[in-house]
Amino acid sequence: MNNQNSNKVTKYRKPLNLNIGMIIFAVIFIYIIICTFMYFTSKHVVAYEVKAGALSTNNIYRAMALRDEMVVMADDAGYVNYFAREGARVAAGDLVYAVDESGKLSDYINTNSSGENSLSKADLSELKTEIVGFSSTFDPKRFSGAYDFKYSMQGTVLKLSNYNIMESIDAIQGSGLDGLVKQCISPASGIVVYSTDGYEALTLEQMNEELYSQENYEKNQLIGNELIAAGDPVYKLSMNENWSLVIQVDKDREEELLEAEYVKVRFLKNQETSWGKADSYTNEDGDIFVKLTFTNSMITFCTDRFVDIELILEDESGLKIPNSAIVEKEFFIVPKRFVTKGGNGNFYGVLREAYTEEGTATTEFVETTIYNEEDEEYYVDDSSLRIGDYLVIPEGTEKYAVSKRGSLIGVYNINKGYADFKQVNILYSNDEYSVVQSNTAYGLNVYDYIVLDAETVNEDELIYE
C-alpha cells in the first residue's frame, strides 16, 4: 500500500500568464474583425466632384468612296512603264505610260539614269502620307493589307524614278527602241490611279452590307515593268473633284443627318475636316445608307476605296456627370398660388387643412422643398404630404386636393452630408457620361459633390465619409 501511494504522480498545471503584449494583440485582433464585418455589411458611397466639361457626338465610320472613275485598258501587249505620278492630275493627251514589246525599256532607263535619284519635298510628302495612312489603318486580322501597302510603295517609288526621265523621253526615239515602244496618252483629264477593284462604277442605289466586308474586297495593284496583255486594265482616271462617301447607319442617325443636311466630317487619315451634303438610300433588305457628297479633298483619297471618318454632329458643353449618378424621382405637383413661406419667411411650404380634437377646421404649415417649377406649378417633396390632403390659400377659401404627381431626372447632392435630390436637365449623353445644363435654379453647380452610384443611397440619407 505504501509503494502504491509513493508511485502516484500528480500533473502540474501551469498558471495562465497574461502580459501587456497579449492584451494589446487581442484588442487589435478584435478591432480588425469588427472593422471587416462593418465594411462588408455597410453601404459604400462614393462621391463624384462635378466639373465643367463637354461631350462631342463624334462617331467613327468606315465609309466607301464613290467617284467618277474610268478604267483605261491597254491597246497593246508588252511591258508597262508608268511616267505619270499616281495621284497627279493629267490633261487629255498627256503621256501616262509606255508599252515596251521587247522588255528592254527598263534596261535603257537604268543605264541612262544618273546615279541616285533625289526626291523632292513633294515626293517625300507622298511617301510619308502613304506610310502614316498604313500605320493608322492597319488591322492585324487582315494581314493582306501589308502586301497591298508593299505593292503600293513599290509602285510609288518606281513611278517617282521613272518620272525623272520624262523630260528626255524623246531620246528613246533614237535608241533603237522606237519601233518597239509605244507611248500611251490619257484619253481625258483627271487624277491618275494605278489600281482597280471593280467598284469603279458603283452607285448609291447598288449599295449593300456585303460590299463593306474586307474579306470580299480585292484590290488589284498595277505595278510598273509588269507584262500585260491587250485589253488588261492599265490605270484609271478620277475625272471629277466632286466625290462621295457612303456609310451604313440606323434610322435615327439617318434622320439626324438628313435634318442637318450638311455634316462636318473629320478624315482620320490626315485629321482634316470638310463638309458633306447628306442624301440617303434604303435597299430591299432594309439597310440604310447615307451618302455624304464633297466638292474637295478627292485627290487626297483618290487611291482609297475605304476611308475612316468621324462625324462631328454637335458639341454640347455644361456640367459633366456619370450616368450611374442619375436617378428618376416622383414628386407632388401643386399650383404656385398654394405655396407660401413660413412665419420667419425662410422656408417654403403649404397650408394644409387640419382639424382640432373638438372637430374645428384649422390649418397647419407644412414645410416642403421645391425641386422644380413650371409656369404655374411647383414640384414639391412628397415625404410630408399625402394624396387626398387639402391645401388652402393663405387668407382665402380656395382649396386644392393633393393628387397630381410627376417625375424629375436628377442626382443626389451630398454637400450637406446627406443625400439631397437635385434636378438636372440633360443636354447630351453617351454610354458613360452626360452633360447637364449649368446655372439652373434647382440644379447643380461646378465642384458640387454627388453620389457616384445613385442606387446606393436613399433620399435624405446621412452620408458618412
UniProtKB/TrEMBL annotation:
* Keyword annotations from UniProtKB, A to Z: Membrane, Transmembrane, Transmembrane helix
Kindly list the residue ranges recorded as spanning the membrane.
Answer: 20-40
RND related beta-barrel domain location = 243-314
List the InterPro entries hit by this protein, alphabetically: Beta-barrel_RND-rel (IPR058729), BSH_RND-rel (IPR058709)
Q: Establish whether keyword Lipid metabolism is in the entry.
A: no
Every RND related barrel-sandwich hybrid domain range: 69-237
Q: What is this protein called?
A: Membrane fusion protein
Q: Origin organism of this chain? A: Kineothrix alysoides
